[in-house]
Amino acid sequence: MMDGEKKSSSELPGWAAFAVMGSTIAICEAIGVGGGIWVDKVWGTAPTGILVGVVLGTITAVVSVVSQVRKYL
Fold first, then answer.
1. Within a 10 A sphere around the Cβ of 57, how many other Cβ atoms?
2. What range defines the domain where residue 34 resides?
3. Which class for 32: exposed (0-12), middle (13-18), buried (19 or more C-beta within 10 A)?
4. Is 17 within the bounds of a domain?
5. In-domain check, residue 58
6. What is the pLDDT of residue 50?
7. What is the pLDDT of residues 1-49, one digit of tens each?
8. Which residue from 28, 54, 68, 73 lies 20 to 30 Å from 18 (Cα-Cα)?
């Protein structure tokens, strides 16, 4: 690599790639749970909102992590 070139995300050290993946999972799940709790409070649909939020957060996290892993394959 020459001076002044930036590393792409596919060239991150192993620990950094795992940190990004872990952060992605945590953020997706937090948004899903937070959104589900908010929906339950606003519409009074407990526990449906949080269950849907967890499922959507998990699906989003899996899709994001799979796309990150494909960069290394």
1. 22
2. 25-70
3. buried
4. no
5. yes
6. 97
7. 455 556 565 566 888 889 999 999 999 999 999 999 999 999 999 999 9
8. 54
